[in-house]
Amino acid sequence: MKKKIHLISLGCTKNLVDSEVMLGKLNQYENTQDLSEADIVIVNTCGFIQAAKQESIQTLLYALENRKKSAILIASGCLSERYAKELREEIPEIDIITGVGDYDKIDELIKKHKKGEKLTRNQSGVFLANEHHKRVISGSKLHAYIKLAEGCNQKCSFCAIPSFKGKLHSRTLQSTLNEVKNLVKQGFRDFSFIAQDTSSYMRDLGVKDGLVELIKGIDKLASEGLAIKSARILYLYPATTSLRLIKAIEESPIFHNYFDMPLQHISPKVLKIMGRSGDFMKLLESMQKCPNAFIRTSFIIGHPGESEEDFKALCNFIQKYPFNRINFFAFSSEEGTKSAAMEQIPKAVIQKRLKIISQIFQEQYQKSLFNLKGQEITAILEGVSSEHEFFWSGRDMRFAPEIDGEILINDKMIQEDLKAGFYRVKITEIAGEEAIGCVVSQC
Predict the structure, then answer these.
(1) What is the pTM of this model?
(2) What is the mean pLDDT of residues 33-42?
(3) If you average pLDDT over residues 291-317, what whole number do you get?
(4) Residue (of 153, 157, 160) closest to 276 by Cα position
(5) Residue pair 303/337 in contact by the 8 Å Cβ criterion
(6) How far apart (Å, rounded) are the C-alpha atoms in residues 128 and 118?
(7) pLDDT tens for residues 7-35?
(8) Of all helices (H) and strands (E), which one includes residue 309?
(9) Greatest CA separation for the chain
(10) How far apart are CA 428 and CA 437, in angstroms?
């Protein structure tokens, strides 16, 4: 009987790519959704903020309690990198603890464990997948993430990532293009390009606007006949995003006018405390002028030094410059960061501010949702919705998977059975916070 593996990938999509590399290295195992029947259980942890750390610990404890007696339990990822010693002391039953540098060696670690070694290791350096690493893409037959770089050169006062992922380390443009070509051969047509600071891609290799070169390279492959349908870029940093890049995205036949730029705040005072650039208005205005633009951002609420006036200014800004999507995060004091040593704002104050600002955006979002009714869009259909078994799941072709929303398909005007692919969809109804649509034609 074939041995089975169960992998839980927590945190960001960058973590997901590393999880897919581990699945590729362990492809001799059958992938199972039932943790209790797995021979190998991997929890790829997240250690970015306090809530993520708690989720990672709880997931490890759940896996420990529900695994079968002979199963090997592995903790990998950011939490394991930051707190390997503490994990070993607090949860000694974990069989293998490994950080962010050994994803491609997971099979070797398992072999060493089977020989009797109790492994707790933090690899020097950070693993970055390239075109030679086999991945088992999860959750989609059409979409894949491409990780461009690891590490970060920015000095945000609230962020611990550089302390355990190090400086920016980019893969070459040719490596990236080769991976896209490999994935297209496997049937993938839609791509999201990611990194900690994606707009700094290739700066460590002496290329100032590496994303512009990437866009040119992808467009050239498409013009030569490679079946790339669509792409988008996630995690742009204001200080390293140029007007030239925005123009390149706008002019690309493949890349959507999708702009994911976490601003974190708009108050010059707070941004200075955060160690971030406040010069983003020209960029934002340029993005908003792009046809069919989709703009996503995030803000941290309650960072040390944020006064009531700063918070009100942020609320007023959001009302004046509406975004398509916003994530609001309560400030999380991270060990070893400059922000952690500052005077903290009471949690009750932060929660009150979160409630106020979330309501402002929720009203905007609901209004924009109702404006979709009657519109026709190009959508990607993946399969039956995980939330609604009687509906097919779709997303606007511009949208990034999972984070930007779902379109529920309950009708079609074509004779053919629906399958994973690109379709024209008419939005027929808005139910609560969900759009419902009818397939009009196949693209």
Answers:
(1) 0.95
(2) 96
(3) 97
(4) 157
(5) no
(6) 25
(7) 999 999 999 999 999 999 999 999 999 99
(8) helix 308-320
(9) 65
(10) 5
Interatomic CA distance for residues 149 and 194, integer angstroms: 8
CB 10 within 8 A of CB 78: no
How many DSSP H helices and E strands does the chain contain?
13, 19
Own/partner contacts of 425-432, CB < 8 Å, gap of 24 or more, are: 425/376, 425/377, 425/378, 425/379, 425/394, 426/374, 426/375, 426/376, 427/372, 427/373, 427/374, 427/375, 427/376, 427/377, 428/373, 428/374, 429/373, 430/369, 430/370, 430/372, 430/373
Long-range contacts, stretch 165-169, CB < 8 angstroms, 24+ apart: 165/78, 165/100, 165/126, 165/196, 166/125, 166/126, 167/204, 168/196, 168/197, 168/200, 168/203, 168/204, 169/126, 169/128, 169/204
57-85 burial code (b ≥16 CB/10 A, e <16) = bebbeebbeebeeebbbbbbbbbbbbbbe
Task: List % helix, strand, coil for the chain (3-state, nearest 5).
Answer: 35, 25, 40
Q: Is 202 exposed, middle or buried (0-12, 13-18, 19+ CB in 10 A)?
A: buried
d(CA 162, CA 91): 26
Closest alpha carbon to 47 in 146, 165, 127: 165
Phi, psi dihedral angles at 354 (to 5 degrees): -60, -45
Interval 203-214 mean pLDDT: 97
Tens of pLDDT, residue by residue over 90-127, are: 999 999 999 999 999 999 999 999 988 777 765 567 89
pLDDT of residue 386: 86
Name the CA radius of gyration of the chain, rounded.
Answer: 22
Per-residue model confidence as pLDDT tens digits over 397-415: 999 999 999 999 999 999 9
Q: Looking at this protein, which amino acid is placed at residue 439?
A: V
Question: d(Cα 374, Cα 67) in Å, to the nearest integer?
Answer: 49
Q: Centre a 10 Å sphere on the Cβ of residue 348 and count the other Cβ atoms it contains.
A: 8
- Rounded CA-CA distance 55/315 in Å is 30
Q: What is the mean pLDDT of residues 48-71?
A: 92
- pLDDT of 145 over the 70 cut: yes
Provide the mean pLDDT of the chain.
Answer: 94
Which residue(s) pair with 395 in the sheet? 380
**Tokens matching residue 249:** 């995205």
Span 77-95, average pLDDT: 91
